[in-house]
């Protein structure tokens, strides 16, 4: 597998229900792009699952630099957040949040029971999630005179690049998206062209 590919989920999952001794565990997964997304999603879940005594969750962000968090939300230490996070790692996912609201059923499950229930709910949730592969991308800006348009467009097609934005006038400008692993090759090809300015855009 190329180093610029990662797995994540395409859309929020449907609700999964897992029951253990009348306790109900509702599994949900969400694609996220920043830590700020987590707070908003958890707030919405608290409104939706008002009878839930705990909303435990785990998330992971990043590809080369990973950040993650596991939250037990009042359950015994490491009995909820880490079992959920373990499933995120088992499915090799990133940029994802898995949350499990729990409605208490009157019987205590013990730490072992909780670990098993949260792990099983997270696993079922991710099995039902739409898992996709994405690649880490870089953006470049190409500037050139209109007379060079055919040459530039031919290269964009050959290299299978995505056009994000374009301005076609006497003086043209195109912003392209490319896979990070192809960055060096693309840079070399465009740098060798005369009358064409080519630069990487900082994200």
Automatic annotation (TrEMBL):
Q: Which residues form the Impact N-terminal domain?
A: 21-125
Name listed for the protein in its UniProt record? YigZ family protein
Give the source lineage, highest ranks first: Bacteria, Pseudomonadati, Bacteroidota, Flavobacteriia, Flavobacteriales
Looking up InterPro entries in the UniProt record yields: Impact, Impact_N, Impact_N_sf, Ribosomal_Su5_D2-typ_SF
Q: Which residues form a coiled coil?
A: none
The record ties this protein, via Gene3D superfamilies, to: Impact, N-terminal domain (3.30.230.30)
- Species the sequence originates in: Croceitalea vernalis
Superkingdom of the source species: Bacteria
Sequence similarity? Belongs to the IMPACT family.
